[in-house]
Amino acid sequence: MSAYMGIQTTGETAEINLSVTVPLAELDLMAGTLKNVLTLAGHKVRLVNDEGDEMRSADEVFSEAHPGMTLRGFRLRDDMTQEELAERLGIKQAGVSALESGQRPISVAMAKRLGEIFEITHHAFLRYIPKS
């Protein structure tokens, strides 16, 4: 690991630019640790890309996202109607509609059935964790 730090002062403030090189295996641990230390010290931490643009998490950008949106995406990808999917699942079309709209949660058992139909891992339908 190597680290370089530059400090630039302007009036009443100073800007600290920190560049740390770590093995990829330690990236998440190191980034999380640095963010936690700064957050505990009362600082807001902003992640930026190479151009200096602030990066946002998927949760921030897609705050209204739910597994049903994933289901709809795969159904449309495969050019399948709700009726066709319902028939393959052995449920009514209204059930597919409720899953896609987020009105009905996708159980692990249903996620596994969907994974088989769309030939993907069932985890794709379980990634959403409701906010409390």
Q: Helical percent range?
A: 40-55%
Q: How many alpha or pi helices? A: 6
Q: How many β strands by DSSP?
A: 2
CATH level 1 name of the largest domain: Mainly Alpha
Mean pLDDT: 88
Biggest sheet, spatial arrangement of strands: 1-2
Measured by DSSP, the beta-strand proportion falls in 5-15%
CATH superfamily of the largest domain: lambda repressor-like DNA-binding domains
User: What's the order of the H and E elements?
Assistant: EEHHHHHH
Main β-sheet, in a few words?
2 strands, antiparallel
Can you name the CATH architecture of the largest domain? Orthogonal Bundle
Uncertain stretches of 5 or more adjacent residues? none
How widely separated are the two ends? 38 Å
3D shape? elongated
CATH topology-level name of the largest domain: 434 Repressor (Amino-terminal Domain)
Estimated structural class: alpha+beta
Overall structural domain count: 2
Task: Name a few traits of the molecule.
about 130 residues, alpha+beta, 434 Repressor (Amino-terminal Domain), about 45% helix
In short:
The protein has 132 residues and is an alpha+beta fold. Helices cover 43% and strands 14% of the residues.
Can you walk through the features of this model?
The chain is α+β, with helices and mostly antiparallel strands. It has 2 domains: 2-55, no CATH class; 67-125, Orthogonal Bundle (434 Repressor (Amino-terminal Domain)). Helix content is 43%, strand content 14%. The chain has 6 helices and 2 strands. Strand 1 (2-10) and strand 2 form a beta hairpin. Helix 3 crosses helix 5 (93-101) and helix 4 (82-89) crosses helix 5. The longest helix is centred in the N-terminal third of the chain and has 14 residues, at 27-40. The model has no long low-confidence stretch (mean pLDDT 88).
